[in-house]
Structures are given as C-alpha cells and as structure tokens.
Design goal:
305 residues; hydrolase; alpha+beta; GTP cyclohydrolase I activity
Amino acid sequence: MNDALPDVSLTDTAPRLSPLEWVGMQGIDLPLTLAEPGYRRELHARADVAVDLPAPQVKGIHMSRLYRLLDGLSQGEALSPAGLHGVLQAMIASHHDCDSRSARLGLALDLLVRRPALVTQGLSGWKSYPVRLEASLVAGVFRCRLEVRVGYSSTCPCSAALARQLIEHAFSEAFGQQEAVPSQDVAGWLRRHASLATPHSQRSEACVSVDVAADAPTLGLLALIDGIEQAVGTPVQTAVKRADEQAFAALNGQNLMFVEDAARRIETALGGYGRPRVFVRHMESLHPHDAVAWASPHREGMVAA
C-alpha cells in the first residue's frame, strides 16, 4: 500500500470547540540513569507526560512525538534539571501546530541504595526509596520538584515514661526494704525484669518534597535522603545480626520522639532547600490508626502526601 495514511487529528475538527488544560500519557515504562557523587545506576521509572492544548479546533495532540522525545531520556545520559528542561522545551516545540505553550513531566521510580549494618563489618543490604519527580515548563518558567519517602523507627516518649515507672515500682517492691543492694543482685533483677514493660515503637515514614534549582548539576537525591535519615536518627535497617539489632534497640531507646518531634527535626534539616514540605506518619502499634504531622515554612494547607 502506497496510499498516505490518514491522520484524523489533523484533518478532523474537534466536535466541541474548547481548549484543554493538559493532554498526554501516563505510566510509560522507561529506563533512566541516575548519577550523583559516589552513585550511578540505571533504574526503572514510570513516566507521565503532557502538553496543553489551547487551540479549541484541534482534535488531538501528537502522542507519538511526546513518546519519542521522552525516550531520549533513556539513552544513558544521567538525569539532571538541565536535561529535563531541554525535553520539556522540545515537547512544546513539537506541538507548535497545536499552539501548545506548556509541558509537564512526572517520573516515579525506586532509588536503590546499599546501606551498611550498624555494627557488623562487611554486612550490608539494599534499601529502596520511592521517589517522585515533577518537572514543568509553563509560560516560559521551568520548575522541578522532588518528593522522596524515607522509612524510620519511632519510639513513643510517653509510653517510655510509663514503662520506666512500672519498672521503678517493681524494683522498689523487690528491694525497698533493703538499705543496700549488692550490684550483682541489681544486675540479676534487671536481667529478668527490665522488660517488665516496654514502650511501643513502630515503623514510620517521612514524605518530603523540595524544589530543585534549574542550574543544579544533579537532582541531589542522595544528599536529601541522607539529611532526612540523620534528622530522624533511626532509619530502618536492611541486613542485621544480633549485634546490629542490639545497636538499633539502643538508638531507639536514646531517640524517643513524637510525630511532632520528627516533623520539626526534618523541617529544620531542610533549611537550605526551596519550598520544603514535610509529611510524617507513625503507623501506631498502640492504636489501629496512624499519628501524622505536617511541616512547611509556607503553610500551604494541610493536605496529606
């Protein structure tokens, strides 16, 4: 067949003449390269891409053009704000016949990082950090925003105080009539009864979003994640032996925090970032519901991440 293939997006007129805010595709599988100091890896991402359609008479956009331009991100060059900016510019240019003036791109991926054990030398494991990147070029203004989720452990200060009180009372009942207690008797009692009451702790999650500068050389994902984990102090572990588990128990016992404490710590650690926003969730072991907190210098409204 040598006949020209029909293209109804060009030859047909939209049945209702109205502009559309965004038109595009979602969930496109894409291999992407992430490179930062000490880290380079190809990751599986899912991409959402769209342009505006301000011309009311145009029936549809050229999705294959967007797909091919998006595929250019998978050619081995590391993700960067400049690279994203260039792709968005090309997407708008590819739709000049639709009068498109804006484009947006979303990327969802899991960042894999090898983390060492707390104590055991040579022991490590992989930890996954869900990441969402949103880049847009609207009215000539480029914006890039990162969102990352970081898991950590939290031990309730109130529960810890209540547990200590019960242990204190039990100790007084055991030794209250003695003027002096041999240290070996105290050690033996603690070995048997120090866990008479234990505070509740739970796996917790911080969802943090920040702006990325247009001229930044990299996305800065690892630095952002490391800053969050240092702020909470008890990031969840991967491979552990008993010595590592004991060290983790000690970290939790010396790092009691309410959900409010976690949100404030992380917000303070994000002082150098643009428009930081923090959402933390403690998945309670005491309650069937979660404890949550938001923090943002801009107070943009309390909408769950």
